[in-house]
Structures are given as C-alpha cells and as structure tokens.
Specification:
The complex is a heterodimer. By secondary structure, chain A is of the alpha/beta class. In chain A, 32% of the residues lie in helices and 19% in strands.
C-alpha cells in the first residue's frame, strides 16, 4: 500500500464464531456465522455486501462457495490464497476496491471446523514433489528447521521459545474467548511432548474451530456506523517462497520488507505502535517477526521475549488475545490479528484492554514463513 | 520410452540410474534446485545438467517424532550441496537426533521403497 491509500478505508465491524469446538457445523457454517456477527457489529446486512474477500482451507473455489452460501452476488471478489496471511492481505485489495468504487461494503471472512472435523490441519494443498518423499510433517517440520537454524546462528534457546508460549497464555488467561486458559509455565512447555525438535506440542499453535470476519467501507462514510472506525493506515506484503526447501535464509522472513513498507505507508515508527498482533503459528514465529518487523535486531528476538517482556505488564504488548498459541487457531489465524488490533483500538478487546490504544500492528504469515503481510491500523486520532 | 525432455523427467531418469544430476544455468553459471525450465536467478532458459559431487553439509535439521509402533522417529533436514543448492533430505546411518547443523554428508541414491530418492550419510573423514 502506498501513502495514497493511507486512511482511505476503515474497519466498521468485526465478528467471529465457532471458537474452540463448533460441533455439528461445517467450515462454511462457521464462515457464515462470522459474517453475520461482523455485519451486525457494523449495523449492516448481508444484502449490503458487494465486495467479498475470502478463502478457505477446503476447495479450489472457496470464495464462490462462500458467496453462494451467503446468498450474495458480489461485484468484486478477491480470493487470493496466500495461506493465513491472506486476510491481512485483503486489507490492501479491499481498500483499493473501495477507493476505486468497485465495491462499497467489503466483507473479509473465514471459517474452519478443522478441530471437530479432523483434529488436524485441513488443507487442499498437495505436498511439494521434492519434499514429499522425506515425509516432513506439514507444517511443523518447516518451522522446526527454522527454529533450529535460529538457535544455531544466534544462540536462541528453547527456554526463550517457551517464554513466547508462556506470554501468550498469560494474555489468554484474561480472555474469556480464548480456548486455552489454564496456567502454563516454561517448564510445562519444555517438558511437553516433543513433536518436531526443537518444538514441543506447547510450541505449536492450537488446533481449534473458528471463524472471523471484518467489514470495511470507504473512510468518508466510516463515521456513519455504530462503532468507532479503525482506519487502515498502511498495509504491505512480500513473499519469498512456497516450500520451506526454497527459503533462502531460514532466519530471515519477508516480514522485513512488508514491515518496512507498511510503516512507510502509515508514516509511523515502532515507538508509536502500542499493540502488536502477530501470527504465532509456532513460538519461533513471534521471535522472527519481532526481529524482521524491526522491534529488535536480528538475533535478539530470543532475549526480547524472555521472562515476560511481551506478556501483560511487559515492555511491548504482543498477541493480547492469547494468539494462535492459546486463543484460537482454526487452520489459518491471520484474520484474528486484524480483529484483535481493531478491538484494542476501539476499546472493546475481549481480554485485557490496553489503555488508550491509537495504533496497532497486525501481521499475517502464510504457508511456511512464505508470505508475510503487515498492516498498521489506527484510530480517528491518527488520521 | 521416449527420451526425457522436461526438467523433472531428466532428473528422475538420472535418479533411476543412481545418478544425481543438477540443473545449471549456461548464462549465469549458477545451479538451481528444484529443476525447472528457467534459471530462477537470472531467468535464462539455457540449462545444462551436471553430475552432482554428492558432497554437502547439513544446513538445518529436525527430528519428526513418531510412535515406535508406527516406525519411530526419523530425520528431516536441509542439505546444502557443494554446488550451492539446497535440498530437503534425510541423513541415514546415525540416530535422527545426532544429525547436526554443519555436519559434512555424502549423497547416495536409495530405492528401498521403489522410487529412487536422494539420501545422505555422514561423510567419511
């Protein structure tokens, strides 16, 4: 996103459904319930939606499936599938479509029933041909190898990785919407079942059901809705590979570029950001993204997250809803980074509500550290 | 069978005769992997096939934990070949947890499971 699009669109509604276990519901049911929740939040109806931004883990034409299910005939659709970052990426395309007059009400939506349907990641993706013979466990083996390399190059420790999970849980413990709210210590994480060295099951995100939705309109009419608008100040993407075997540097993600451009578009600096919502599929993600987005130097992410520094009361609020590690992770988590950032700015976060939040960052990750998308959201005061 | 023409076919045919061929760009001289019809570095389309030295180092590694009754733990790693390309593979002949970053390894073609694949074993010192 360029400076020309700064603040041109606003989020006027968010919603979610099916968190935890959505027994008896399909992925599309959860998607639709999420859409209704977000539209209700915005004081709008499904019939008002003329722009749809959607992808799902099932099917090769999920946006069409979703439109059909919802009973709408969108005049603009973006179904770009980048993995979990897709929903942060849609902030850019929705802003462009709104600004160009290609649609007036943009609905970003996602839903999944992967926990009750299968208990593991549901995906229509085929295993990459030159990786499949070695049976990597998708996607954990990819993240495990990134973590191993980070530990090797920078001395990052399993304890530091564990502290990411502990911090996420500390936020989640205050969030009634979070799936895992029990106590969690560093020792619990280290002593949990090893799944893919160096990551234990507690270094891995949850497998839950759930869906989320976001409604955007052009900024010039954003004040006509019940909730305080949250403006898209900057959003930017970069992709570096699809399969983990093609990742050039296992310790550096394309978040370095997406973050740089999102900050430039928003015209703000790191010190201005009051809440950071990152796609934490695995504990290493949080460390990599804090580094690559510039909150600390490369290699210092481990020390940055250590001992509660990103937990409630720490130096930087990160994943204030509990993240994918402890709140919700229905196959793709990206949309929830935007929803939590929006709610923090509006002042109606479900868990710990931080004081006077005007600027928050949402960062989506897709594939296996493949697609990185950063968005900076702000209140009316930041325009 | 007609001569192999596509990049995957050429690679697979060589592997079937226990030979590891790597694509190398005639224009910029860089190797790439996986095989494709263009060089991902300079986008040249003139590609030659070179026999790999088989020498490499473990770039990063993990152990996939699996219950013993389902076959037990196994290694998955990335090996950086002497030619400068990396491939996903497995180091055999040592415990999966003993595979270490920077370890020198040597490639071999294994067809124990019917389809030939490239595996590695620790290099002899």
């Amino acid at each position: 996103m360029t400076n020309e699009l700064r603040g041109k669109s606003a989020i006027v509604g968010t919603g979610h459904a099916g968190f935890g276990e959505a027994h008896g519901l399909t992925a599309y049911d959860v998607m639709a319930q999420s859409a209704l929740a977000a539209l209700s939040d915005a004081g709008l109806k499904l019939s008002d939606v003329d722009g749809l931004f959607c992808t799902m883990m099932e099917d090769s034409m999920p946006a069409l499936m979703a439109a059909e299910y919802l009973g709408i005939q969108p005049r603009f659709i973006d179904g770009t599938m980048l993995g979990g970052s897709s929903f942060v990426n849609y902030l850019t395309s929705a802003t462009m479509a709104l600004e160009a007059g290609l649609c007036d009400v943009a609905l970003i939506v996602y839903g999944s029933n992967q926990r009750t349907a299968s208990g593991k990641l549901v995906t229509a993706s085929r295993p990459p041909a030159y990786e499949a013979p070695y049976n990597p466990r998708y996607p954990i083996s990819a993240y495990a190898m990134a973590a191993a390399r980070h530990m090797h190059e920078y001395g990052t420790t399993r304890e530091q990785l564990a502290d990411v999970a502990v911090s996420a849980r500390a936020w989640a413990q205050h969030n009634p919407e979070a799936f895992e709210r029990g106590p969690l210590t560093r020792e619990d994480v280290l002593g949990a079942r090893m799944v893919g060295d160096p990551l234990t099951v507690r270094d891995c995100c949850l497998v839950t059901d759930g869906g989320g939705a976001i409604v955007l309109v052009r900024a010039d009419r954003a004040k006509d809705f019940p909730k305080a608008p949250v403006y898209v100040l900057g959003s930017a993407a970069e992709s570096s590979h699809r399969q983990i075997s093609q990742m050039k540097d296992f310790t550096v993600t394309a978040a370095r570029e997406s973050g740089k451009r999102a900050f430039a578009a928003a015209g703000v600096s790191h010190d201005d950001i009051q809440a950071v919502e990152l796609y934490d599929a695995f504990t290493i993600n949080t460390i990599l993204f804090l580094e690559d987005l510039g909150f600390c130097a490369k290699g210092e992410g481990g020390a940055f997250v250590e001992g509660g520094r990103i937990a409630p009361g720490g130096v930087l609020p990160v994943n204030t809803n509990g993240g994918g590690l402890s709140c919700v992770h229905p196959g793709m988590y990206g949309i929830f980074t935007v929803i939590e950032a929006t709610r923090q700015i509006r002042g109606d976060a479900p868990g710990i509500q931080l004081n006077n939040i005007d600027l928050a960052l949402a960062h989506g990750n897709g594939g296996v550290l493949s697609s990185q998308v950063t968005a900076i959201l702000g209140s009316q005061a930041t325009l | 069978m007609p001569d192999a023409t596509g990049p995957d076919q050429i690679y697979d045919c060589a592997l079937a005769s226990k030979e590891i061929l790597l694509p190398k760009c005639d224009d910029c001289g860089a190797y790439h992997f996986f095989p494709r019809v263009l060089c991902p570095h300079c986008h040249g389309t003139s590609i030659s096939w070179m026999r790999a030295s088989g020498k490499g180092r473990v770039h990063t590694t993990t152990v996939v934990r699996r219950k013993p009754e389902r076959g037990g733990d196994y290694n998955v790693c990335m090996v950086e070949l002497e030619e400068g390309v990396r491939m996903m593979s497995r180091v055999d002949g040592i415990a999966p947890g003993d595979v270490a970053i920077d370890m020198a390894v040597t490639a071999f073609v294994d067809d124990a499971e019917g389809t030939p694949i490239v595996l590695f074993r620790p290099a002899e010192v």
